[in-house]
């Protein structure tokens, strides 16, 4: 049989692989990292399975199998890696033959063409409606048109002939989707260095809101408790997730769209104020306050929030306030103890030592500054 797989001779059983001192015991499917990604009955796992279904994969394609990520740095402008495209296809076949499921990932993402904004359309629709030149032409009265650009022409010359083909995608100014910016930076005693919210993605009633905190110390606790029927929570509560920032996550994961408790979903609640030092995807929505800085893992005020504390959000005033008196806040600060480092060695330890806070860009400290750096020698 020539199907690309190795087969034992008819009537015979393939001999077992010889045991060596380096042979690893076979893992159960529930012990696989990919089971934690796809196999559990959580909202995050449901989202992961949904993405796979969107790509055309059935659960039988990957369920119970090790999902192998293949990072591909192939690019048409990187001749040194020009062979990686073919090589990755060969590796995928090998993974499939070995009983795994391969997924190819880019090592550097150039763009997200299917990112969805707060409106009803996708970036593909934006492109066919005229794209960026058409958008710039629509707001040309706000631009400095004589500015020079990289192609030698002025900005005004570059957008002068641009046309808009769909006014429902690139709205006229008098029909703007929102009256202000699409993002708002909040400040207050809960976020001294700032936090971010996407106002257009939140229900209007929550732009100004006061409610009691329901606090989750980390994502594991959130996943374990959020759908507990005994959780003390209602539609006025403010869900708070701690330890999800650059160091606490680590890596500031996209956990900021906290799930709404099941018992509230059953009552028809579709949005709540949610606060964290995490990120969320550009395709996510809701009254989610993100990027709280400084993060709770290093002793930011978010670490001191307790169940029942009143929190006030006022998007129009750009304010996020923990309604606890200063003396009590200082008492909690003095009692707080930093958690142990996430990693003792390796890249994780280096990351934690170097990564800056959200308001500073989550960059490595060694990469900041304006000192000139010489071009490396080329041989």
Order of adjacent strands in the largest pleated sheet: 8-7-6-5-9-10
Computed over alpha carbons, the radius of gyration is 26 Å
CATH-defined topology of the largest domain:
Glucose Oxidase, domain 1
CATH architecture of the largest domain: 3-Layer(bba) Sandwich
Largest sheet: 6 strands, mixed
What does this structure look like?
The chain folds into three domains: 29-106, no CATH class; 123-175, no CATH class; 184-335, IlvD/EDD C-terminal domain-like (Glucose Oxidase, domain 1, 3-Layer(bba) Sandwich), CATH 3.50.30.80. The chain has eleven helices and ten strands. The protein has 379 residues and is α/β, with parallel strands linked by helices. The strands form three sheets. The protein has a six-stranded mixed sheet with strand order 8-7-6-5-9-10. It has helices at residues 33-38, 43-54, 59-62, 84-97, 123-128, 131-138, 155-159, 219-225, 262-265, 326-335, 346-354, and strands at residues 67-72, 101-106, 184-188, 191-197, 208-216, 238-241, 273-276, 288-289, 310-314, 319-322. The protein is globular and about 60 Å long. Helix content is 22%, strand content 14%. 22% of the residues are buried.
Relevant terms:
single chain, 379 residues, alpha/beta, Glucose Oxidase, domain 1, 3 domains, 6-stranded mixed sheet, two-stranded parallel ribbon, 14% strand, globular
């Amino acid at each position: 049989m020539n199907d690309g797989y190795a087969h034992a001779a008819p009537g015979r059983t393939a001999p077992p692989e010889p045991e060596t001192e380096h042979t690893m015991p076979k893992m159960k499917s529930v012990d696989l990292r990919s089971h934690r990604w796809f196999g559990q009955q959580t909202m995050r796992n449901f989202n992961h399975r949904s993405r796979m279904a969107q790509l055309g994969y059935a659960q039988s394609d990957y369920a119970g199998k090790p999902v192998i990520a293949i990072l591909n740095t192939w690019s048409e402008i990187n001749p040194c890696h020009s062979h990686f495209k073919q090589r990755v296809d060969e590796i995928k076949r090998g993974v499939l033959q070995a009983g795994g499921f391969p997924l190819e990932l880019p090592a550097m993402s150039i763009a997200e063409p299917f990112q969805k904004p707060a409106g009803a359309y996708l970036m593909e629709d934006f492109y066919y409606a005229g794209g960026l030149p058409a958008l710039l032409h629509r707001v040309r009265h706000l631009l400095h048109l004589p500015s020079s650009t990289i192609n030698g022409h002025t900005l005004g010359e570059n957008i002068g002939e641009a046309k808009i083909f769909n006014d429902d995608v690139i709205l006229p100014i008098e029909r703007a989707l929102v009256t202000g910016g699409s993002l708002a930076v909040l400040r207050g005693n809960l976020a001294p260095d700032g936090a971010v919210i996407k106002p257009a993605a939140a229900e209007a009633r929550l732009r100004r809101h006061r409610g009691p905190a329901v606090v989750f110390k980390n994502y594991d606790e959130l996943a374990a408790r959020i759908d507990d029927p005994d959780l003390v929570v209602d539609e006025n509560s403010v869900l708070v997730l701690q330890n999800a920032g650059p160091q606490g996550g680590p890596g500031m994961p996209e956990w900021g769209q906290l799930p709404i408790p099941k018992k509230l979903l059953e009552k028809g609640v579709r949005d709540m104020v949610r606060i964290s030092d995490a990120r969320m995807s550009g395709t996510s929505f809701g009254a989610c306050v993100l990027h709280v800085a400084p993060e709770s893992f290093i002793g930011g005020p978010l670490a001191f929030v307790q169940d029942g504390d009143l929190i006030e959000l006022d998007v129009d005033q750009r304010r996020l306030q923990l309604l606890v008196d200063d003396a009590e806040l200082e008492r909690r600060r003095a009692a707080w103890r930093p958690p142990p480092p996430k990693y003792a060695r390796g890249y994780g330890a280096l990351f934690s030592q170097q990564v800056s806070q959200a308001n500073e860009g989550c960059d490595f400290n060694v990469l900041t500054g304006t000192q000139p750096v010489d071009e490396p020698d080329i041989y």
